[in-house]
Amino acid sequence: MTTTDQAGTRAADAQAPPRSRWAAVTAVALGTFLLVTAEQLPIGLLTAVGSALHVSEGTAGLMVTVPSLVAAVAAPLVPMLVGGMDRRLLLLGLMALMTLANIASALAPSFAVLVVSRVLVGVAIGGFWAVASGLAVRLVAPAHVARATAIIFGGVGAANVFGVPLGTLLGEFSGWRVAFATLSVLALAALLGLLAVLPPLAASQPVRPRLLAEQFRNPGVRVGILATFLIITGHFSAYTFVSPALQRLSGIDERLVGPLLFAFGLAGMIGNFAAGAALARDARRTVLVIALTLAAAMPLYLLLGRGPVGGAVLLIAWGLAFGGVSVGLQTWMIKSAPQAVEAASALWVAVFNLSIGLGALTGGVIVDSLALQAILWLGGACALAAALAVWSARGHEGLR
């Protein structure tokens, strides 16, 4: 182990709490659940919002694009701007911002006001996720970090499985404004929960531009950032168009797409916790298996997914593997930069959100100019390239 690794380990040990705070971990998980729900909720409300505020569905899509891009910028920027501020107060402030932003969305008299409220949502998402993603090392004993990280990121899977579908259903029956208002009430409940159980979290090392730049000299961080960019870009280039892929390539009835995507989300939650358990034993091998599974699952659609059964099985395998991506790559970043977890996490969250937008954009261009099959090849190729990058890091001691 190098001197830098030893110093990082000592820094991480110094931050380790005297006892594990699982109630705080659960409250942070609830926060991530609501943040991801807020980010993706408009996907199911585009038509209703567009009709009510007199804009096209394409324009209404800005409700999804804007917070993603803002979150990518806010992830490194918010920790830099707040300096040494107690992270407990920061998380409380960001959840309060989320509460107010969704009230503004519910009451928006025009689409312009609604977009501004979505900018605030993006700030809350980027800032909260950047801090929360590396918070496990501050809340639980070192032996439980992987499991606590899996619980925090379980909120992401739960949002995809329950949050967005239930919010969309509420919007269909009670109106889109009620859906946003309900999300605001839940965000307030999460704020009160964080206030009750989150301990003081003094900033161990304020995030500065120089500290962010220094992370790129860390080979483990570089590989983690590259793997994140490749896997997330490849996944969203293909997954954005999974509905037409299921219907055209696998011959699955349109009425079954929703239940299959629900199954994808459930498989993702299982994959999240399975990866959390495996990461505690060997982080590099776990991320490598995830990347290789994704590299196989997407292109195999063209060989084994030509029927409903094959398509459904491959979709669930895809969901199982992708469910471990967030917790796997975040754990990679924690282990690669134990002396600068928040800075490395901020970079990771920024790349993650940028890659979502880039993947969806790239997939759209490919589908329009080439063919639907091409995005599955791209997704598989990106995951394979990520696997090669992960394999190249086999000598990094901290990732064992």
From TrEMBL:
<feature type="transmembrane region" description="Helical">
    <location>
        <begin position="148"/>
        <end position="170"/>
    </location>
</feature>
<keyword id="KW-1133">Transmembrane helix</keyword>
<dbReference type="GO" id="GO:0022857">
    <property type="term" value="F:transmembrane transporter activity"/>
</dbReference>
<dbReference type="InterPro" id="IPR036259">
    <property type="entry name" value="MFS_trans_sf"/>
</dbReference>
<dbReference type="InterPro" id="IPR011701">
    <property type="entry name" value="MFS"/>
</dbReference>
<protein>
    <submittedName>
        <fullName>MFS transporter</fullName>
    </submittedName>
</protein>
<feature type="domain" description="Major facilitator superfamily (MFS) profile">
    <location>
        <begin position="24"/>
        <end position="398"/>
    </location>
</feature>
<feature type="transmembrane region" description="Helical">
    <location>
        <begin position="372"/>
        <end position="391"/>
    </location>
</feature>
<feature type="transmembrane region" description="Helical">
    <location>
        <begin position="119"/>
        <end position="141"/>
    </location>
</feature>
<keyword id="KW-1003">Cell membrane</keyword>
<feature type="transmembrane region" description="Helical">
    <location>
        <begin position="287"/>
        <end position="304"/>
    </location>
</feature>
<feature type="transmembrane region" description="Helical">
    <location>
        <begin position="310"/>
        <end position="334"/>
    </location>
</feature>
<dbReference type="InterPro" id="IPR050189">
    <property type="entry name" value="MFS_Efflux_Transporters"/>
</dbReference>
<feature type="transmembrane region" description="Helical">
    <location>
        <begin position="346"/>
        <end position="366"/>
    </location>
</feature>
<feature type="transmembrane region" description="Helical">
    <location>
        <begin position="58"/>
        <end position="82"/>
    </location>
</feature>
<feature type="transmembrane region" description="Helical">
    <location>
        <begin position="21"/>
        <end position="38"/>
    </location>
</feature>
<feature type="transmembrane region" description="Helical">
    <location>
        <begin position="219"/>
        <end position="241"/>
    </location>
</feature>
<keyword id="KW-0472">Membrane</keyword>
<feature type="transmembrane region" description="Helical">
    <location>
        <begin position="261"/>
        <end position="280"/>
    </location>
</feature>
<feature type="transmembrane region" description="Helical">
    <location>
        <begin position="176"/>
        <end position="198"/>
    </location>
</feature>
<keyword id="KW-0812">Transmembrane</keyword>
<dbReference type="GO" id="GO:0005886">
    <property type="term" value="C:plasma membrane"/>
</dbReference>
<feature type="transmembrane region" description="Helical">
    <location>
        <begin position="89"/>
        <end position="113"/>
    </location>
</feature>
<dbReference type="Pfam" id="PF07690">
    <property type="entry name" value="MFS_1"/>
</dbReference>
<dbReference type="InterPro" id="IPR020846">
    <property type="entry name" value="MFS_dom"/>
</dbReference>
